[in-house]
Design a protein that fits this description.
The chain is α/β, with parallel strands linked by helices. It is built from eleven helices and 13 strands. α8 links the parallel β12 and β13. α1 packs parallel to α2. It is globular, with a radius of gyration of 24 Å.
């Protein structure tokens, strides 16, 4: 409709329609206590809860394509068929809510075999403590971590095949798109950056050589998954240090990736070195997405301290990005998408009906308002209970009160135009 919020307009990638442009990024939970890479009831509840919150898409967390590619022993994996099969109930539930679900595929490389953040374990976990020997494009270590063993050319090709096999398992598990994690200092990013890749074979040297592994994975995933399955790539647009990966490198590689079959770029920054000086402020990474979009013409997703509905709306309405990934705010409030729709005045039709009493606007008229034994307030008198039957936990009202909600429950008008920010 005219004037509708841009954030709640649909977007289509390769024939897959996403109901809005407010997406949940990959948020690693570190909860695989069995250390076998299998999704757990926690993942089902976590992702299922997010699916009720109004997002257009959810990216399941960073998932390793080999056992040695896990960042911690508590990470998910998709290196065997049992892991694929275990995902099916969760992906089915999320899809049933009208939300597109994807999964982020990754290999940690030299940043593998580490501890969980809340365990306060710094550096590489020793083999004796449940860790493993780490690998990388070269023997250059991440600061404070163990030096990796340099992968042979054949081993690099094996990891390439592992990414493709995991992508096929993802599709067969019920995921509707995949995202390749080429950011935050993990293996695909390590190959891209001259700070970590000093190889002299076909996977090193020039920019195209350093990008070869990523491009080969995209190309072969496209062949394996067909034309109708979206492939996303998460980039760190810059390493934030001299001599590292740059925005221009990102733009050039992204153009090659589009030709290979990639559809949208999720644009973050950093992660290659621990001491980069990064200016942090609300929306601090949005400009990188905007510039990549301008340079390539490809759809992009923006991330980085986007925490309010107005802020996310401005990013899309101003043409700075095609979608907005909001992570921490969805962790704070799993119904953030519903709240954002109400704050922006978006007319959505996917508020979960079992939650209709919590809507910011009148409940649908077709819903019956019958007395229910659990609908009265604790401690109320019999008379008050009778007069408030059907009104839920709200204040007592007269039995003659209209069953429709008052106008005060309608969503407030947007307080400012699409260019506003918080």
């Amino acid at each position: 409709m005219p004037g509708a919020p841009a954030l709640f307009e649909a977007i289509e990638l390769r024939g897959t329609r996403f109901r809005n442009r407010l997406w949940v990024p990959a948020l690693t939970m570190f909860t695989v206590e069995a250390r076998d890479g299998m999704p757990t009831p926690f993942h089902h509840v976590h992702l299922g809860g997010l699916a009720l919150g109004g997002a257009g898409a959810i990216v399941a967390e960073c998932t390793a394509v080999t056992p040695e590619g896990r960042v911690t022993p508590y990470d998910l994996g998709l290196w065997d068929d049992a892991q694929r099969d275990a995902w099916r109930p969760t992906t089915a539930f999320v899809r049933d809510q009208g939300v597109r679900i994807g999964i982020q595929l990754s290999h940690g490389g030299r940043k593998s075999s580490t501890g969980r953040s809340w365990d306060r374990v710094r550096g590489t976990v020793p083999v004796a403590d449940g860790g493993w020997l780490v690998v990388g494009p070269s023997t250059v270590p991440y600061t404070g971590y163990a030096a990796p063993r340099e992968l042979s050319t054949d081993e690099v090709r094996g990891i390439h095949r592992a990414f493709v096999a995991a992508g096929v398992r993802a599709r067969d598990a019920g995921f509707e798109f995949v995202e390749l994690h080429a950011a935050h200092g993990f293996l695909l990013h390590q190959f891209l950056s001259p700070l970590a890749n000093t190889r002299d074979d076909e996977y090193g040297g020039s920019l195209h050589g350093r990008a070869r592994l990523l491009l080969d994975v995209v190309r072969d995933l496209r062949a394996a998954l067909g034309d109708g399955f979206p492939i996303l790539v998460r980039f760190s647009a810059t390493d934030w240090v001299p001599g590292g990966w740059t925005e221009q490198d990102t733009a050039t590689t992204a153009s090659w990736a589009v030709a290979a079959g990639a559809d949208l770029f999720d644009v973050s920054t950093g992660g290659m070195v621990p001491d980069a000086e990064i200016p942090v402020f609300p929306g601090y990474q949005v400009g990188h997405a905007e510039r990549l979009r301008a340079a390539t013409g490809a759809p992009v997703g923006a991330v980085g301290l986007v925490t309010t509905a107005d802020q996310a709306e401005a990013v899309v309405a101003e043409g700075r990005a095609d979608v907005v990934f909001v992570g921490r705010e969805f962790l704070r409030d799993p119904r953030f998408g519903l709240r954002a729709a109400a704050e922006l005045g978006a007319a959505i039709d996917y508020h979960p009906l079992p939650y209709h009493r919590a809507q910011h606007r009148p409940a649908p008229h077709h819903l019956p308002r019958k007395a229910h034994p659990c609908s009265t307030s604790v401690g109320s008198s019999a008379t008050a209970s009778a007069s408030t039957a059907g009104t839920g936990s709200g204040p007592a009202t007269s039995a003659t009160t209209s069953p429709t909600r008052s106008s005060s429950s309608t969503p407030p008008p947007r307080s400012s135009g699409p260019g506003s920010t918080s």
